[in-house]
Amino acid sequence: MIVIKKVSKSFGNYMALNEIDLEIATGDTVGLAGPSGSGKSTLLRCIQGLEVPDSGVISCSGRPGFMFQDFQLFPHMTVWENILYAPTTRKFLPQSLLEIKASELLLHLGVEQFKDRYPAGLSGGQKQRVALARTLIFNPDILLCDEPTSGLDVATTRDVAVLLKSIQRQKTTVIIASHDLDFLMQISHRIILLKNGGIASDIEPQKLANPIEYLKKLYE
Ligand code: ADP
To answer: Whose CA is nearest to atom 22 of ligand 1?
Structure first.
């Protein structure tokens, strides 16, 4: 369960989040939609603790993990090193267990054969899978994804949707910020539309005849 109560965050004079109230049930997949600058990333970053709200409270039952926009893999490290660097440094688990888990994740995500490659030698979709492995190695209870399909083609975007669905089945709570309504529609139980730092709409897409049209009208 994630409970967000009256959370506000400003950057200078710009109010990125304006008294957000939101509850997200454990195991739900929630899409955060909204135009650029509407506060999607800021909300994810506040949940992860990467930004501190100016006011309000966020409580999470469980540990969040963050998947950054544009992958943010270390260019000078191989796939294997990218995945193991942070958990090894933080001594998250004994090294032998970390290596077993890294191998399992690479296999599950279909990038095992690329473990000795550097990020420059991977396609966008492969980088996305490695970025996902790097986040999942920490066993997050809550997965926060910031624009996970930006720069990916239609087929690769579909692959990312399938991957995220496989995480849903493990009862992880997933929150995805994306401007791509079609993508969000494929995977979300619930879509929250942010506008000017506030919640403009909160829908369950399965319950609407044409959720994309409905949300597009609210964008305007
Ligand atoms: P979105 O993810 O919906 O595009 P963001 O949450 O990234 O929106 O940004 C909301 C607003 O806050 C934007 O106008 C952005 O420029 C501003 N903003 C976000 N982070 C910072 C920051 N660290 N410093 C200054 N302004 C920021």
So the answer is: 11
